[in-house]
What we know:
CATH architecture: Up-down Bundle
Number of helices: 14
Order of helices and strands: HHHHHHHHHHHHHH
Number of domains: 1
CATH superfamily: Amino acid/polyamine transporter I
CATH topology: Amino acid/polyamine transporter I
Helix content: over 70%
Oligomer: single chain
Largest sheet: none
Amino acid sequence: MRFNLWNSLKISMTIIGTTIGAGFASGREIWEFFGSYGEESSSGIVLATLLLFAASVVILQISWKERTQHYSEVLVHVIGVRLARLFDYLVMASLVTSTLVMVAGSGATFQEWNGSFTMGIWVMAAAVILILFFDLKGLMSMNAVLIPVMVTVLVVVCLQFLQGTGWMFVPEEGDLPTLPVWPSAITYTAFNILSLLAVLSTMGRQIQHPAEIWVSGGISCLCLGLLASLYNYSLLRVKSLISQYEIPLFALMRDYSDLWVATISLILWLAIYTTAVSNVHGLSFRLSEYLSFPPWVIGGGVILLLVPVSRLGFSNLVTLLYPLYGVLNLLILTMILLYPFTKEQ
């Protein structure tokens, strides 16, 4: 076995693409989970980055050693056969509903562009099915192309904002948070764990050397941590304006041209897209154990079945579905992090 740097980079881009959903790219997750805690938010980002790194490495290690094909096989090693059967269906339901929210989010995005909600839904469905047709290699290649572009655009926006307003940050009076930030950092990590579990559990057979696991985990989490820190630092400069924007990112772009605003809108849609692809990819590989069809056919069928339900609306779905999986996510994250200490030697 030889170490393959390019393979490590593709895995790391997939981790980033799965984590940078619309919530991260828009700045809403960064502000709610970290920025709202003021100066203490930086320590929360460091903790969340370390937890994401540890969880990603553990999942990839299990997937590589056991040659797993889907998340259920990883769950068996993490929480045992009996609990894995129960959680298998809960994770499946979570991935379906999360994908449903992403599809509805695409419709809402097209509405913001003065298009139709229906068109946004079908464009997302077609784009997801297209990537699934090329299997895991298609997913990794897509992230290898899109993620550097998305990250670069977000970094440029933050740097231009800081260059125009000054680099030094002077905290306002009353900036001290009333609650510690570490619980929010743990919650943020748990919030992202199911999508990571779904996609990373399918990558074991792609890993050629164990060092690729550590390198891909390190690159992805370092990139996410630095981007989140830069983003958070920028948002703290416009703290008083955040409440005026549904998308905090636009608070950094008040004087930008229409072309820049259109570019950022496209980046937000791509963030929705990469997360949706990861979810459907993990789901289709799991369902392929029950259905004798290629994963891309199964994934395409799931997407098409979700199209009518997505008409319930983006905000309604987020409000209804996201809180239901909070406890599930926290428990699975805890068991993944404890796995190296509890596994049978």
